[in-house]
Design goal:
Layout (H helix, E strand, L loop, with lengths): L9 H20 L10 H17 L8 E2 L11 E4 L7 E7 L2 E4 L4 E2 L4 E4 L13
Antiparallel strand pairs: 1-6, 2-3, 2-6, 3-4, 4-5
Length: 128
Amino acid sequence: MSTPATTIPDDVLQQLIAWVRGFLQHRHEQPDSEPRTLSLDLWTGFQLALTELWSLRQRELIDWHDVTDQLPDADITVLVCTPASGEPVWLGWFDDGDWYEIGGGSITGVLRWAHLPAGTIADTRTPS
């Protein structure tokens, strides 16, 4: 099973680059200063970039596979995309040349499929 890679959006990457440049410029202009003397704007920018990166941990990318290019392993539950049906995205599996929905009924018109996102399965917190 492939694991989707986390992609850092361009705007977040630009925020981080700007922060690093600002930090390096500050250190160049005031080489003897301590990090705690950073400007409030520079510190705020750093905090915003970190907040955005933290939120990325809580997102998952779904990599859809065209059924003409690749099929899932048999009997693994996946997301299926059937645009012509009443529910265009649903749970199902592929087995012996046929698609089935999670309730066991046969599905036709599957164009794409994707591995299920890890979701809360990856969350190691203790429920309250």
